[in-house]
Amino acid sequence: MAGIRCFKYAKWLLLALILWLSLAILYLTLPPGECIDDSASFAQALWDGRSLQRVYHTEEFIPREYRLPRVRRRRYLGLKYAYDRHSGVLRIRNEDVPLFPLLSPLSSTPSETSTSTPTPQHQPQQHSKLVIPWAKLGDTDGVNPPWFRTGDAVLLYSFVSREWGRILLTVERAPPPTSPDAENEEIVLHVVPARMATQREGTEDDAVPLGMPPLASLHFLPSSEGEPPTLVRVHFPPQPQSFGTSTYFSARYALLSVLAPSAMFAMALAELAGQLVKLLLIALGIVALLWIARELWMYRHEGDAEEREDARERQTAVLRKALREVLGPLYAPPNGGRHRERAARTLSDEEERFEPKEEV
Description:
Region (Disordered): 107-127, 329-360
Order of helices and strands: HHEHHEEEHHEHEEEEEEEHH
Number of strands: 12
Strand content: 15-25%
Transmembrane segments: 12-30, 276-293
Mean pLDDT: 78
Structural class: alpha+beta
Distance between the termini: 119 Å
Number of domains: 2
Keywords: Membrane, Transmembrane, Transmembrane helix
């Protein structure tokens, strides 16, 4: 019965292995796919409530001195964008940025009193507060073959390695156009790298743009009164500064979400088995050392016992010889009481022989 159960388990394990290998072959043989960079399609996706993922070459947008330590370790970072047209909130990964204050006419047209007095370089209505979203970090190697698109490779690498880093951003409004038809012109918002403001420039929540190229540009058209502006175009930097996902990214992500956990589980089991074998070998080594130490101790103590016995016999022989020389016939050898009685009788006879007799 035990053999039949083991055969059944081995059969299911073999089927699971064949299925895993089939999925792995499918993952590796998928074609590279095409990356569609269409600003109108991007805008329609965000307007419909869908999200967009974009991968950036870090050195092109964030200077090294403004990168956090985690971001410095990888060449690429990935951000996810989503937009709620009802609330006017732009979500960058885990940070929400209200856009209505930036899209309102008051934020772009200064008043008459403000034109007569000098305004600071970074006006609060010209850009949002400092946002610090989490960005996916990755490279193009790892689980990715060379023919994968850069955007797919970086996001899949980050999915397996689980590497994240925080970057400092702000959303600023582009300068208003000077044409007479400014009311019908597009309102452009740029997502740009920033730094934290100093005490002279503002509070810790205020952002100071770094003057680097924007990560994304959102183009809005003013709507009728009471309606929010309409998102018409979303522009991302071209390659090799930024990369989009291919048409096969969803399929690759679904396959990897099955392959990676199972592979990690198998690797964890193999590592656990290796640790158990290592502990077993260490235990066997300790037992062998204890056995060798015991044998050496017994051999040494047996030799010491024999040496002590020999020394005792030598001491006994020397003592016997000394007793013979001192006592002479009085020395009774250790062969029994008969020798002692004979020696005592001989001694008494000799004493009687040499005892003087009294004359009458």
